[in-house]
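As the next step, I needed to go through one protein, both as residues and as discrete backbone shape codes, included below for the reader:
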Amino acid sequence: ECILSGIMSVNGKKVLHMDRNSYYGGESASITPLEDLYKRFNLPGTPPESMGRGRDWNVDLIPKFLMANGQLVKMLLYTEVTRYLDFKVIEGSFVYKGGKIYKVPSTEAEALASSLMGLFEKRRFRKFLVYVANFDENDPKTFEGVDPKKTTMRDVYKKFDLGQDVIDFTGHALALYRTDDYLDQPCQETINRIKLYSESLARYGKSPYLYPLYGLGELPQGFARLSAIYGGTYMLNKPIEEIVIENGKVVGVKSEGEVARCKQLICDPSYVSDRVTKVGQVIRVICILSHPIKNTNDANSCQIIIPQNQVNRKSDIYVCMISSAHNVAAQGKYIAIASTTVETPDPEKEIKPALDLLEPIEQKFVSISDLFAPTDLGTDSQIFISRTYDATTHFETTCDDIKDIYKRMMGSEFDFEEMKRKKNDIYGEEEQQ
């Protein structure tokens, strides 16, 4: 919503942004001080002395990293919101196999040294990576007999004779699919995802992921500033009493007895429970640790992916870990957040393989959230509803949703060029510097 309000403002629309919370970012806020996190999860008492100062904590409710070459970074660069943020590269990406974790090879040298694969498997995998790197959907010479719109990914793996373990980590740790449904779909999307991973990795070398200092709560604030510079108005702590509808179409929003009139409305599912449908659940467990995760070479940040096959599930389990190095925790403390899509009536048991990797855990905060998708696409009502954040640990699916809402609102494809700051409209910037 914050990104869209920024983009709409740059596009010359008049934007009023209301939030019933006292902080930016709604569901995906970063909570500070630590005392507030304890309250939010109804934990008795206050954080122990050993946790340091409450103010030193900024804990994300929904963990996600940015792909260095991904859509969100592009949005940040085009709108120049990057000037309000500082990023750090996540130190490593790991994948789970047979109860142990292994670093996802990030260079050819690492691939050759990796104990994830045997020697011949490595050669075949290298051939496959070279094929993907050279693949260009506009140049049939690079296809080598593969039809990107027809050949399934399963067949491409067969062509390179890749074994199940390699298929697992390629599909889940490189292409970042949550399930194995992609295997029987045309291979173009998967090849592009692996390219995105490799290109993101090439930018900084340690991993393809970036993370903002002071936590993800900085992102919505950055876009809120963008909106404000273009004349948008932002109101926190603003209760929404009613969405006013005339002849099936939104005409305004009622708050504290007054109606703010509008032609279009963007909101998340929590504001319109009658226009969304539940499509699943996600369990997330925030863990505070006093040590880096074992077998990660003492990384101060990392991602671990547990492919579903390895734990007899349909969806992957993710772990994101960040630390005091990112100004989100007290000195010497680490925050690891495990998440997955719920498949059984006992979600805590489903996420156990991830928690076992994190032991000993100092404090846990467990949440189970419903996932909603809009039943009303906004064509008639002009109410445009975002989807709930899924279990993935990067922003690509969120950006797809933003582009989808943009298209439904504007009737045209999302165009990154449209987001470019106009050179003559930086009024307000000088005073703020």
